[in-house]
Amino acid sequence: MNTIWSDYVQNIGTLYLSRTLRFSDEHKENFMRAFRVDNLGQKLKILEIGCGPGALTQSLSRWYPDADITGTDRDTAFIEFAAQQAPHLKFMEADATALPFADSTFDVTISNTVQEHIEPSRFFGEQLRVLKPGGICLVLSARRGINITADCIAEENSFEQEIWSRVEPSDHKMQQKYAIGQFALSESELPAAMEQYGFHQVSTEYVLVNLTPDNPQNSRELAHSMINSHRQTSLDAITAIPHTTPGAVTADELEQMKACIHEKYDRRIMLYDSGVRQWDTSMSLTMVLRGIK
Ligand SMILES: C[S@@+](CC[C@H](N)C(=O)[O-])C[C@H]1O[C@@H](n2cnc3c(N)ncnc32)[C@H](O)[C@@H]1O
Question: Whole domain around residue 101: which residue ranges?
Answer without folding.
Answer: 4-292
